[in-house]
């Protein structure tokens, strides 16, 4: 099978300059790198792209290839890849993707974050409160102080990888020297070996403990909101900082009040007499009682607003309490009460007749589509 033209491999014209060839190579090498592309022929394409760049990326080899093509006695190769340097898959991956792929196993690392749930009362969500949450989480072992080693001893640097956590093997290929890296089997990628493990933590350096963590509930928090508590997650590794704790708040429903944004709402029953004649009633609020004046002739469903009796806001502002009145129809009337209502109905018959005429007139128009 004949080799493809190197310019076709890199998908560049023959007039391309060194920078254009380099950019094309970086793009294709990223695309076909075996650590990124899992297709069956990815490695073969990666090697083909690498071979093409070794020739076209070198001015001397490029000039020979432009003159002789693949018929050049040296095949356009003439030595190790990348201008005589040794590169491995790991090196190339780091070069293209920003490095740090093989982190130092002994470097400080931040601990993992934790999540928890907390159920609070409706009033606590409105005005805020201070609560405690009990968490079972990892902590440095008290016996070995987090080293994992038996007291009086300490972890040793792995003699196989010299503390790096990985070892290298070099393979000579027609395309140059390939350096492969893999986790050290002796220390399992940790860079350290614990000969005498701590009996309390079995060499992990950590144990599970129960903690009581204070949680500040801000006033006005919504159901489902999350509170972040810095530094209350799992402990860091190798001296790194701890993670954070995220507490999701669930607010229990109130028997009387409901929340709508920064306002609170409730319903208050009124008798027929109170609604007709007016009255001054006492309304419960979350922080006590308040008086509400009911004007004469109030209709059922009328809403009144008590300023500042809702949910506290920032900068001192507060929502309102919206009170909706419901006129209650009396039941189980005595005969005397019934007669009084009959007398009332007779005395107010003309007024009711006028109201009914007006109502039925509107209803007839609605049926006619007027």
From TrEMBL:
Entry GO CC: cytoplasm
Tagged with keyword Cytoplasm: yes
Any GO molecular function: ATP binding
Positions of Zn(2+) 1 binding: 141, 144, 198, 201
Cofactor annotation comment: Binds 2 Zn(2+) ions per monomer.
J domain: residues covered: 5-69
Main location: cytoplasm
CXXCXGXG motif repeats: 141-148, 158-165, 184-191, 198-205
Compartment(s) of residence: Cytoplasm
GO biological process, one term: DNA replication
Cofactor(s) the protein needs: Zn(2+)
Highest taxon of source: Bacteria
Ligand binding (Zn(2+) 2): 158, 161, 184, 187
Ranges for domain CR-type: 128-210
Key words, A-Z: Chaperone, Cytoplasm, DNA replication, Metal-binding, Repeat, Stress response, Zinc, Zinc-finger
A Pfam entry, by short name: DnaJ_CXXCXGXG
PROSITE patterns listed in its UniProt record: DNAJ_1, DNAJ_2, ZF_CR
CR-type zinc finger segments: 128-210
Entry function: Participates actively in the response to hyperosmotic and heat shock by preventing the aggregation of stress-denatured proteins and by disaggregating proteins, also in an autonomous, DnaK-independent fashion. Unfolded proteins bind initially to DnaJ; upon interaction with the DnaJ-bound protein, DnaK hydrolyzes its bound ATP, resulting in the formation of a stable complex. GrpE releases ADP from DnaK; ATP binding to DnaK triggers the release of the substrate protein, thus completing the reaction cycle.
Family, per entry: Belongs to the DnaJ family.
Subunit structure: Homodimer.
Record note on domains: The J domain is necessary and sufficient to stimulate DnaK ATPase activity. Zinc center 1 plays an important role in the autonomous, DnaK-independent chaperone activity of DnaJ. Zinc center 2 is essential for interaction with DnaK and for DnaJ activity.
Protein name stated in the entry: Chaperone protein DnaJ
Species for this entry: Shimazuella alba
